[in-house]
Protein: Response regulator transcription factor
Organism: Streptomyces narbonensis
Amino acid sequence: MAGQPIRVVIADDEPLIRAGIRMILISDPDIEVVGEAADGRAAVEAARAHAADVVLLDIQMPVLDGLSALPELRRAAPAARVIVLTTFGERENVLRALEHGGAGFLLKDTAPAELIRAVRAAAAGDAYLSPAATRHVVERLATGREAARSEQARVRVAALSEKERGVLAVLGEGLSNADAGRRLHMSEATVKTYVSRILAKLDCENRVQAALLARDAGL
């Protein structure tokens, strides 16, 4: 609801990383860290118990790793948006997380301002594609799978109108609604309407999945 802080759960098995993320997030008066977890199972419970808006989820954790926790978390706290925390050495895991409905990902050495932007974007319903890392990782990951997926992706994208394909193409670049509007000479509200329509037509849960589909289709 308007005026209420964004409720965040931090899930990472390293106490120092959790503490650092907490310090960054609580510097923003609109963000509240409502829970922490040191393993995937605890992350699922914390997200459910605290009605989290956003969960920052590490991949490498004991008991239940982040990839295994993600589908359980989405069932236990369906309103929570999940941002995966990763390193460049975990690229394949990142793609799997995005395909299973993660709202984006951040590198663990992300700048504080970008971390806050990502949390705000996720809470607003947008997937956060890091300009510094996500585009690069998605492109690298998609390379080995494009041949198998491209035809299916092109068939799905063919159901879109020309304007919808144009909007989908800029989603593949990781642009925000505002930046997409400037690129396409549309209002931000119009872009948002197009994005909702595109997600429905393509049966995509979020912008990240649509962006991956755009890349597979060669847009």
About this structure: The mean pLDDT is 85. The beta strands are 6-11, 31-37, 54-58, 81-86, 104-107, 128-129. The longest strand covers residues 31-37. Residues 101 and 170 are 20 Å apart (CA to CA).
